[in-house]
User: Fold this.
Amino acid sequence: MQTNLADFIRDTPEGREADGILRKCVHCGFCTATCPTYQLLGDELDGPRGRIYLIKEMLEGVAVSGRTRLHLDRCLTCRSCETTCPSGVQYARLVDIGRAVVDRLRPRPAADRLRRALLKESLPRPALFGAALALGQAFRPILPGALAAQVPRTSGRGTWPQPRHARRMIVPAGCVQPALAPDINAAAARVLDRLGISLIEVPRAGCCGALRFHLGDQEGGRRDARTMIDAWWPYLSQGVEAIVMTASGCGAFVREYDHLLERDSRYAEKAKRIASLVRDVSEVVAAGEARLAECAQRSKPAPLRLAFHSPCSLQHGQKLRGVVEPLLVATGCELTPVADAHLCCGSAGTYSILQPEIAGRLREAKLAALGAGAPEAIATANIGCLAHLQAGTATRVRHWIEVIDERLD
Amino acid sequence: MSPMETAGVEPADFLAERDFGGRDREALLSELSRVLPRGALLVSPEDARPYECDGLTAYRQLPLAVALPDSEDQVRAILRICASLDVPVVARGAGTSLSGGAMPHKDGVVLSLARLRSILALDPLARTARVQPGVRNLAISEAAAAHGLYYAPDPSSQIACTIGGNVAENSGGVHCLKYGLTVHNVLRVRAITIEGEALEIGSEAPDAPGYDLAALINGSEGMLAVITEITVRLTPKPLTAKVVLAAFDDVVHAGDAVAAVIAAGIIPAGMEMMDQPATRAVEPFVHAGYPLDAKALLLAESDGTPEEVEEEIGRIREVMAANGATGIRVSRDEAERLRFWSGRKAAFPAVGRISPDYYCMDGTIPRKRLAEMLTAIATLEGKYGLRCCNVFHAGDGNLHPLILYDANAAGELERAEEFGGEILELSVEYGGTITGEHGVGIEKIGQMCSQFSRQELAMFHRVKAAFDPRGLLNPGKAIPTLNRCVEFGRLHVHKGGVPHPELPRF
Ligand SMILES: Cc1cc2nc3c(=O)[nH]c(=O)nc-3n(C[C@H](O)[C@H](O)[C@H](O)COP(=O)(O)OP(=O)(O)OC[C@H]3O[C@@H](n4cnc5c(N)ncnc54)[C@H](O)[C@@H]3O)c2cc1C
Ligand code: SF4
Ligand code: SF4
Assistant:
């Protein structure tokens, strides 16, 4: 598309990046077809092509009101549009730039700012978040019903195998996940242990940065990322092969640390190295699929009808499609068909809190699609989706690695 | 004929487009907001601008307002209001038109049908589906899949384009060679006139009394009425389908192979061609395994019973080989077949990877002249200093040259337009037409003047006037007014002399 960026942005690094992305978009509209919000709301402005146009206008210097921000806020950043776009438009990067600019040009009303500030200070802090969950009440006004009350707490963490293998990988403790589902990392450690890999947990160091970044505090997100890098860096010299992520939402963000910190002279190189070592746990397990199948054969697990929900951060963000499903099948699960598997469940980080209406409608549709084949349980790959979906259904929602762990002896 | 006499037989707005300026904007907006739900009327330029163009971004126009109704009643109410205030209306589906058909009118309302997106009924026994206009083409096939059925016309944009837009453009697709265009697969259309009256065209029964207006409404480009309901025919999925992927080291050989396949009496389910630049642009997206060193690829599909398919694939292979194919592959399974096609279907937008803008042409020519046309296009590339990718519905002789340009570079768009204009005029000269399936819209309106005579154009205007006497539906599109033809300098001029001295000049 033709562009003519305004002086205030044209010659900045963001301006150049945005211009390159905008020029790749040929306005074909393919992406609208797979955009959850366009499919729901039927307005060009709530679809990727329209949002791209709104951003273009803004960067070209046309005056904007809070309405442009509203349409950008309604975007889930699910990146389904990127999967669909034949032209390779990096929408998520563009919308990050667009959001930062609109926040500058049209600052949010105070109440909105406060809500976001509370979220970004409470959620990434394991202690605070855990306490809020325990107390239940204190954070009600800002926590979604989903997170505050309805998530069944797992009974705690199971055993973590002693590191006994030569192959070692690290897994970050995470921020929200330990409070909600403490056994996910341990389950990953147990599965990998069977595959000949010892998983070492890096003690809590806070949030990977995704929460702050996506709540509009891009600098704060970068700060978090640097803290993470500092926490992980010492392990790399100890022969650690990979950084394993068990929450695909965090994985999608950490995988792009190189881009996030590319203009930070102190961290750019480190960020690149870290990003190159990140693996979703499914990639690691898939590399040992033969061994997994052997283990499963020995343990002869009972049949299980399962619906799998692939988080957007896995299938669109990390472009890992069709990796988890065969692993579940290899351990004897029967996967029920799920229509519109490319659509977001509405969780999308803090979206379910900030846009409850749309998130609720998306969840309803997703649960209907997941329930169509009458599964005994639902499996997913990201703690956010897990909690969000669980709050809307009586069917148990679990991380797929826990399901697999249970099916091996 | 003197100008006076002409006016007698030619509709009033045949000579020049009407001016819709100075309408009562306040009254319009307040009436529209009364009949629409909250948030369904976009008025500020900030909100309306993303609607200023469709898939053809070179032509843009900010509308007065955008209406997003979610029911037929609201559509009817909007049309009545616009009729009473004499305000133009431009219908819009998914906005994927490549001819600017859905480009707004500056004094008009964009009427989006995107929120009317329910599949109202699906009858697997009668093999029909009754749907609202905003349903996506592919969504119909997805819903029908459970019954072993699908909706056959498959424009490359089928993931996104709406069935209403398909009817309005009489869209084709890669499988139209065998299964026909939209018009051959639509049984019934319900549409609302500008006065707010419902029209029923066609019927769910095989035949119906009265004129068959189906051919009129299919391809009407939003000029006659606003389509609000469509009954489509569903087709049983073939038992098997396989596609041959043939590589050529010369586009001319590929063009000849197309003509040879048809001459051998084979009607493939689809036959498409892509040249090397197009193939190279799309491969990184689809990973179809296209041979990147080939100058041109042909895709030819056969479907039916396994025996029929085997036999036909064998014959297609022979013809390809005899015409110089340097490599031939046959899809090994359904996934590979879909991958082969997905590259073709994503070809236009994938060109965005190699060029910031493209201008897609849509002429048709007799198949036997494909090779000649390709050679001519190559010469024009040199003349205009612009690259051109070629993607064809080869079996139908429907060309989609994609002229690559950079809208940010001064003068390139104009050169691209001239380049395109020459291709279209060549199409007519070769015995073809200026549009195969993308419609005339705003883009090819000038070339309409070279394709049709004054009498024919007058006839089109009379048909339009029968539905929409005041010319409020999508004014300025599809059929040129006489002054426009003169402006373009492209009217058929018989016996020399200045054509139409009675018309104002610009
Ligand atoms: C990448 C790409 C590939 C394409 N490939 C093909 C192809 O293979 N074959 C093909 O034929 N076309 C193709 N097209 C063109 C386009 O997709 C078709 O013309 C399609 O039918 C337009 O549908 P739409 O819903 O987007 O309509 P729009 O673009 O919104 O509108 C198109 C026209 O239809 C009118 N209209 C829309 N809805 C209604 C309604 N309900 N009632 C009355 N009028 C209405 C509009 O006023 C306008 O004149 C392609 C486009 C793109 C971008
Ligand atoms: S699919 Fe890609 S090129 Fe097409 S409109 Fe969407 S972002 Fe732009
Ligand atoms: S990221 Fe998701 S919600 Fe946002 S525009 Fe793309 S597809 Fe739509």
